[in-house]
Task: inverse folding
């Protein structure tokens, strides 16, 4: 199917020209007229390639990991995805005076988390990235790519190791 889009416009323009009109000046004129079409075809092929790549990717862990490692080739396939693991014992307490967001404190093996963190534990994952890639630009690129491909119900956290 790829060969359908392999078109040599310069050759096609010359072949469509009658043989008695094939002079060097007229052929050069045709090549200059075909140049914008060739430029549009190149843009089309780039867009087609990127669209096919995006369609091949899904929210599965293997595809997310492949997509991130393709986006950051300097990582040498070191970007990993793992389940979010929250250790310790879970303590739940309801107190109207305590702010719910203030309950995210880890204290000596006992973990206090708010409701959002409990939900995140059930459906979240961690993206393990090498420390060499830690920069605001790379962090933003990672978040954009993950938000584009992950399921909406999933939460993630970027961990630099």
Result:
């Amino acid at each position: 199917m790829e060969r359908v889009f392999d078109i040599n416009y310069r050759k096609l323009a010359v072949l469509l020209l009658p043989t008695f009109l094939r002079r060097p000046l007229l052929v050069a004129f045709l090549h200059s007229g075909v140049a914008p079409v060739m430029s549009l075809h190149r843009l089309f092929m780039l867009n087609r390639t990127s669209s096919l790549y995006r369609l091949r990717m899904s929210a599965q862990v293997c595809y997310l990991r492949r997509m991130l490692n393709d986006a950051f080739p300097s990582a040498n396939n070191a970007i990993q995805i793992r389940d979010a693991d929250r250790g310790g014992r879970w303590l739940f307490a309801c107190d109207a005076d305590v702010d719910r967001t203030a309950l995210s404190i880890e204290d000596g093996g006992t973990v206090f988390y708010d409701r959002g963190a409990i939900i995140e534990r059930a459906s979240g994952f961690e993206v393990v990235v090498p420390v060499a890639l830690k920069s605001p630009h790379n962090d933003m690129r990672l978040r954009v790519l993950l938000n584009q491909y992950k399921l909406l119900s999933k939460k993630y956290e970027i961990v630099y190791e």
User: Anything to note?
Assistant: Residues 61-160 form one domain. The longest strand covers residues 124-129.
